[in-house]
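Subject: Predicted fold for Flagellar P-ring protein, 373 residues

User T.R. writes:
Posting the sequence so we have a shared reference for the thread.
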Amino acid sequence: MTGHIGRILLAGLLALSVLLPAGAAAQSRIKDIADVEGVRDNMLVGYGLVVGLNGTGDDLDDSVFTRESLIGMLQRLGVNARDEDLDTDNIAAVMVTANLPPFARQGTRIDVNVSALGNAESLLGGTLLVTPLVGADGEVYAVAQGPLAVAGFQAGGNAETVTKGVPTNGRIPNGAIVEREIDFELASLSTVNLTLRNPDFTTARRVATAINSFIGGKTAQSLDPSTVRVQVPENYKGSTVGLITDIEQLPVSPDQIAKVVIDEQSGVIVMGEKVRISTVAIAQGNLTIRVTETPQVSQPSPFAEQGETQVVDRTEVEVDEDEERRMAVLPQGVSLQELVNGLNALGVGPRDLITILQAIKAAGALQAEIKVL
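User M.O. replies:
I've generated the structure tokens; pasting them so everyone works from the same file.
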């Protein structure tokens, strides 16, 4: 009985291995590698005033825009402050930014970020007054107001100051109300364009093939490395949302070009999985000469009738030619892991590795693109 159960389990595992493709782990949903054209955020920006600061606001003598904004606001509220000698440090001029999500309806609340514009020291405890947020077309799409949440702080005295985080930046969760909608009739579309986040010919064709296999026929077509056009089938007419919901869950194996990304400033190197090199010999070493001066003082013996104190030079010279580092040969078609292991065996650091990769590329042995940030 036990052997019979074991044979059944073995048969089940074999059947599961046939059903699951070998590259299933490398597959991604279309939703994760492509965006629907037209479904996007819109950036908003506004200029406003933050009040209620505990003496950490702008200096009105240095920040003219803050002074004029304060006077203008008070005049709109019926207070004549033009002839008065304004001297307050509890107010700060700020820039307010937000992202208007797609299909945001009137009355929807969105988060806003607030950043000091003048010489304010901190926005902690401040409240943003009514601030219109405009888009690239100059129209007002939202209005922001509310108390700020500031993560950083600053404290100190005459001799020392401690600052944690950035106290001149703040955030107001749900601090803006959407006043204008951006019209986009998704349901009336006859075609839907998918835009790949990492353009690639092979990936675009695989996306189109996966959609055609699911829907049937020549519904999807790859127009270029970044765009896949999908014709809305008859059974999805008036239900474009349903079509997008179905196709964005389809699994696709995205392809990528062999690329090496180098950040010269930080020394960070990122190499793709498909990086290959031809047969090449690598040697790395540096000539290091170290000169150490250790002067010694020579004094005459006690109670000596003659003699004087002298400084005697002592010089030590060391020469390191890195003789222990040998030339290594990397065979043709080595993988990324083998390349890293071979270079690590030479004791190569990140800075030297950047130079070596560039030299291999110059020799025509690196079959990959090098991108320097």
